[in-house]
Specification:
Blueprint lengths: L7 H7 L21 H7 L5 E15 L2 E15 L2 E7 L7 E2 L4 E4 L1 E6 L18 H16 L3 H14 L2 E9 L7 H12 L5 E7 L10 H8 L5 E5 L1 H5 L2 H15 L2 E6 L4 H16 L7 E5 L8 H14 L1 E5 L10 H6 L4 E3 L16 H11 L5 H12 L22 E4 L4 H7 L3 E6 L2 E2 L2
Parallel strand pairs: 1-4, 6-7, 7-8, 8-9, 9-10, 10-11, 11-12, 12-13
Antiparallel strand pairs: 1-2, 2-3, 5-14, 14-15, 15-16
Amino acid sequence: MSNSKISRKDFLKNSTLGLAGFSFLPGFLQAAPDLQSDLNEIGNMGNVTLKNVLLETGFEYEKDEIIGTKTELFTVEIANGKIKKISSNQPNAKAMDAKGLLMLPSFKDMHIHLDKTLYADRWRAVRRSGGIKGMIDLEQKVLPEMLKKSTFKAEKLIELLQSKGSGFARSHVNIEPTSKMDSLKNLEITLANKKDSFGAELVAFPQHGLYYTDSLPYMKEAAGMDIDFIGGLDPTNVDGSIERTMDTTVQLALDHAKGIDIHLHESGKSGYDTIMYLISKVNENPVLKGKTFVSHAFALGALDKAKQEETAEKLGAAQVGIVSTIPFGGLVMPIPTLLKHGVKVMTGNDSIVDYWNTFGTGSVLQKANLAAQLYGQSSELGLSRMLKLATAGPIPLDDKGVQQWPKVGDDANLILIDASCSAEAVSRISPVRSLIHNGNVVY
């Protein structure tokens, strides 16, 4: 890591906002009614034993066809934020009773803007005009007022995500001349308040253009702080140059040992050219492999099938990931093609309620359900594979039905969900009854 990196603690300490007057008690967290008495007894100590936990153990076959998922009840011990022991069920043990709920890996929202939500405020429908630059103009007007309550609203938004099973998010944070570093400072306070119940990684995001507005000095400052990724926005439509914007973005990431996650809404030739240019830069700098992502990447959906296959192969070889909000309508992203070529594909809500969009529910399980519908994944195997979009990777069974999660030593980041198996959870968008984060029962 860069020697210039500033820790979140030091950043907050040096912030003009300071920490005075802010409570670091956890926010209001509501447990499912049927687990409430157990949760009250257990508390949040990072150590808990759960009985009557339903785990997937394999697939059921009829000849060569997977027709169902095998499950059994277990007792699971958690200590120091890790899964310590998985044993045969002990229904009479003094332990938190999971009541036969299915245990799955907790979810991750891998593309969201926690710093500028209207959630927990009055309803507003979208009034979008003037394209991307019109929205930049709007943000320049409304951000100063939004920043006054952004810490509180981010906390409320995190609590929504937790109620839907997410214990982690990758949040893009505005870094531009209007809010300067204040969006980041406010969100850091929120994350400090939620540090025992929610994890996050941050993307410094020049929402108003790296060069369209004078954002570069602020991006350089943010790059030296405790953020994880350097972001970017539509280099052709906003800044007027792929090379200049992408070269600067890549260099910031290299200079400060960060990853890259850029917003790319451009769906025509400029969008495709940006993806190819970024692939070439990553191949020139292998340290960026596995740390570089394109969010949205709508240009992929506009390619013919042969070009999609070719591009997916190049993305997979360069280890450049795609973070998609699973759009639909006139644009269907080639997610199955990307997965086939080993591209890391993740999803997120993006907007929950803000000036850009109002359709986000807070549930990435709903995104997995949408993907299953769009790509015709209605079989037991197909549905269960779509769960990886909600978890950003881990799922209980591999393609052959061999149990791969949970294992002793895994981080105790998990949910209890009212479903009989992963396939049902995805198909029915089953309700999450409890979220455990690093061994702490937080919902």
